[in-house]
Amino acid sequence: MIMTTLLKVEKITKKFGDFYANDQISFEVNKSEVLAILGENGAGKTTLMNILFGHYTPDAGNVNFEGNAIEFGNTNNAIKLGIGMVHQHFTLAENLTVLENIIIGRQSIFSLSLPKRQARVKILELSKKFGLPINPDELVANLSVSEKQRIEILKTLFLDCKLLILDEPTAALTPQETDALFSTIRNMIETGLSVILISHKLNEILAVSDRIIVLRNGSSVGEIDTHSADREKIAEMIVGKKIDYPQKKKIPRKSKVLSLVDVSYDKTDAPNLSKVNLDLYGGQILGIAGVAGNGQTTLAKILSGHFKPTQGKIVFNEAKSVHTSPKSFMDLGVAYIPEDRNSDGIVGDMEIWENAIMTEMDDPYLRNSLGIINKKTSFDRSENLCETYDVRMQSIRQRSRLLSGGNVQKLLLGRWLMRKPKIIIACQPTRGLDEGAIASIQNLLLKAQQNGSAIILISEDLDELLTMSDDISVMYKGMLSDPTETSSTDKLSIGLRMAGDGFL
Amino acid sequence: MIKFRLEERAKSPYWLIILSPFIAILVAIILAGILIVLAGANPFESYYQLIIGAFGSKNSFAETLARATPIILTGLAASIAFRAKFWNIGAEGQLYFGALATTLFGTGLVVLPSILMIPFLFIMGALAGGLLLLPLVLLKLYYKVDEVVTTLLLNFVVVLLVSYLLEGPWKDPMSLGWPQGKSVIDEGVLPQILSKTRLHLGFIISIFFAFSVWFILSKTVIGYRIKSVGLNAAAASHAGVPIFKTVLIVALLSGGMAGMAGVTETAGLKGYLTLDLSPGFGYAGIAVAMLANLNPIGVIFSGVFLASIYVGADAMSRAMNVPTYLADVIVALTVLCILLSLVFVHYKILFFGVKKND
Predict the structure, then answer these.
(1) A372 at the B interface (CB within 8 A)?
(2) Binding-face residues of A in 396-415 toward B, CB within 8 A
(3) Structural contact between residues B337 and B22, judged by C-beta atoms closer than 8 angstroms
(4) Are residues A112 and A29 in the same domain?
(5) Distance between CA atoms of residues B313 and A325, nearest Å
(6) pTM of structure
(7) Are B10 and A367 a contacting pair at CB < 8 A?
């Protein structure tokens, strides 16, 4: 088979101040090929894609698409040439139908009607051809995440895209939905389209891509044919060093630390819970699987004192009644790693040391009785935390938002672990992190378990749940299944339960 | 065709951060100069008159500092509140509440020696300003009622209340029919600090509070919590920062500062409460805080700057026969230019031409 080059990227360089986000990156994408781009957060993947799709203008370099130089900084030009992009966060109008969402923005704002009839024919045709079942008249607000993603993909196909860029497409999908997406990708390849896939999940990349490009610190560090690739070697290429993979050791269960009795949550501000029962023991890791939006976050917020259940009760081992507030739960030994570490975890515009001591403001070592902060001891404590938990930074006086995702998570987890928590509620603790950081976070959690902490691990990553948990429960529409021992279950049966199997 | 786009700077250069407010003020002055030309006067001479009017003599300088006194306090009120993203637009009402407290306690109800009477009046004024804000902050915390609306609207209610009191029950019988309150007793009057001028102890007190607020915000746990709540309340709450308590403290501090501005005017400048006690000092505080980028020490300088524009514009208007409203225009333009300059500090502008495909 003769390879025809579709996209040719030559020596793209993009600087932000003195920082090279992309440093002389070159690669090609052939027709009918899936190219995977791998790299840590901050390796330059998103910047590169934003250059291709016309969001950014590079400082140097060329991009040719089918032999034409693309016009930088012009998204419309990119679309016209045949480049389509599905962002991690969807860009759909919830109050419009599927059909309207797909054709919107392609008409002059002065045209009075939308050419819906022709569009409908074309969309249904595409939907059949690529195995993307949809109902064109459904409101987008009523669709699930994977259905919305289908609409985004159809939108690009409707515009006759030849190269589809998918940014972390499987982040919010069940294993079954992921398989369906991959078969769609294969359909596309067969009909001559090309795909650039950005993902953190190595297993998925290995399953679906033809070639892999690894970025590190803004530079391309290697190009590999997927069929000759070795998982661990790629992971080390991404991180730039050997990874210490977590080894789970089972430890004997200690006494019960927490139980939920018929806990329900029935308000409009978050997904509801209905009659959730749960027991948690010291030294246990209880995994909770489920597709995003089925109430896991609500459960975590109840367990950490942010929400008060509308019914049922929370029983802590020693405390009889608890005032519902994050602070009083903290004082009972609860540590909470929120799902969104940038918006709920860290105060990005405060310095690292300020974030490091945020949970410790009652500690007389860090402040005097008048409430004046002791900078020296606070700095010492922060330096100590960063060293113990390997938070890599230039200075504790630097703004926290400049930290990479993995380092933010190590800082947040370290902040809790220094308090020796009895219960750790970890929500998606490794989401969006690279292999090296994932291993560090998982190792830290396992070590906390060895030290007797009870851990509730809420994750959408089934591999993570299966390697880390002692028992796994599944959440579906606000209901929580009884726990199953990890050794007696597998991905398939968890996936089925995530889709509602076995729930009333 | 030339196009441009904004791109966020990874780090803003220091010279730009320091220089930008001065450039902004310069631009505002040039823009207002155009208006002066339109009003038929020579802008250079007008600005000369303005500077002379604000700083030209001992008396005018003292007048500028006296005018700066309440603006610094309301500027501090806005700085504290805005740092925590608590949008207190009600400093005007809190100022008048502080003035009411001064009249209630300072006109004979309580008599103490001066050394105690003055602090007592400041405490009462601060409590009055804080208490006015208390129900509004509780409405926000319990029912999520937007504080911009409540604090702003309450200003008008308070001004009407003052009007009612001065026309009715609190009217000074000695005032020959003018709607004004009884005079503050001698023990409570803030002493002059520059002879034969209107500059009073209130100015020193406002500077003292600027430094106190700076100390609280930058050195203490409370200040640290205020900062974290303002920058990311969700993350702060997840780390155990008590949001409710922090916002409550912010409201009391902010309302307290504004209330004390009412004390300096009633017990310092005028000696009694009048309906025109504040020509919008509460609102000017917002501009002052913005100009200072919410920095309490910066508030001292931006407060004096604003006061000098207002005082100087009176002189300019008399000498050059241009409207005094130009002062408001200069202040408004300066705030707009400062806000715009922040965009240039945080972003750089990239120009690029469109390349043709070859």
Answers:
(1) yes
(2) 415
(3) no
(4) yes
(5) 53
(6) 0.79
(7) no
